Amino acid sequence: MKKKPLKFSIMIASVVLAAMLAGVWLAATYRENDSRAMFLPDRVMTLFPDPKPLTAFALTDHRNRVFDLASLKGKWSFLFFGFTHCPDVCPATLAILARARDNIDKNIVGAEDVQFVFISVDPRRDTADKVGQYVTYFHPGFLGVTGDNAQIGNLAGQLGAAYEVSIEPSVENYPVYHNASVFLVDPLARYHAVFTPPLDAEVIGKRFKVLRELAGAKAT
Amino acid sequence: MKWRHPVFAGLTWALTLVATASEAAGVSVRDAWVRESPPGVAMMAGYMTLRNDTPRAQLLVAANSSDFEAVMIHRTIVKDGMTGMVRAPQIELLPASSLIFAPGGYHLMLLSPKRTLRAGDRVDITLEFRSGLRLPASFEVRK
Lengths: 220, 143
Known about the structure:
The complex is a heterodimer of chains A (about 220) and B (about 140). By secondary structure, chain A is an alpha+beta fold. Chain A has 2 domains: about 5-30; about 40-215, Glutaredoxin. Chain A is about 45% helix and about 25% strand. Chain A has helices at about 5-30, 35, 70, 90-105, 130-140, 150-160, 200-215, and strands at about 45-55, 60, 65-70, 75-80, 115-120, 145, 165, 175-180, 180-185, 190-195. Chain A contains 7 helices and 10 strands. In chain A, a hairpin with a 4-residue loop joins strand 9 and strand 10 (about 190-195). The longest helix of chain A has 30 residues, at about 5-30. By secondary structure, chain B is mainly beta. Chain B has one domain: PCu(A)C copper chaperone (Immunoglobulin-like, Sandwich). Chain B is about 15% helix and about 55% strand. Chain B has 1 helix and 10 strands; from the N terminus they run αββββββββββ. Chain B has one helix spanning about 5-25, and strands spanning about 25-35, 45-50, 60-65, 70-80, 80-85, 90-95, 95-100, 105-115, 120-130, 135-140. The relative contact order of chain B is 0.25. Classes of the chains: A alpha+beta (about 220), B mainly beta (about 140). At the A-B interface, helix 4, helix 5 and strand 8 of A face strand 2, strand 4, strand 5 and strand 8 of B.
């Protein structure tokens, strides 16, 4: 009676040990094989091996110009969704993105084709003027975007950027929930990568430099 | 003798004073700062490191400042992949421990500043604890 379970547990132990060894070997292989490791999601950035082309949307930038699919073409775009009545996460993120922008300008030759865009999910309070005043405070080159709810939802939905605005007519500071990731769209207007919080300006700059070179090699 | 007797009341009052005075020395604020806000924005956030060196847990229950319309204790949370803020009615500060208020976590939400606050300015915010302790702290406005 007792022999069987013992054999069984030895067998289980061997399987577990083999699995552990295989795990160690796989981890080592991935570390050596840089190109493959690039596609593994990490804690900072997820790079999509097969970027998803975005489809038509129509918004307005803070200079009252149309901001649509054509505005994304020919440029690398860092997109962040937020709202100006946001005291903690939005200013913190925009301050980091301002440093990332400076870092990219300093370290990448020909980075004029990079734009940083803040899209308000709260158009009820955020007019084009207000968004403009807000984003240019963080960096003069930043673009603020707003529009009607359906079109904001359209672009946010394509990027999987969930948000929720709980408007209560009597409450001045109604709660807004929004995805705090930074979405990277490539010059072919495809959803290319996403940076997830906690964000770091240096890391964003470094990762972007590498993925831009990789994409360039594939003739983006 | 009833518990309402003046002697008891006086004793309780004296003990509370002693306790509050000793706790005031044991709870401290470091690295207190407020993020400068873009023009036209009436909402700011304050951050700090709170340290409790008293042998008892301390409950932070409110904060106020004459420089703002209102001060609220908030916490940034992530819900269903979305980031938002919730009110933190009270925060427990364990004995011999620190609590960091930082971007993306606990913060003091500062509503409608009564004067224009620019980097380098200072604002006074008083923290209130359940024990009756009131801790004034000076926050530096930073960009």
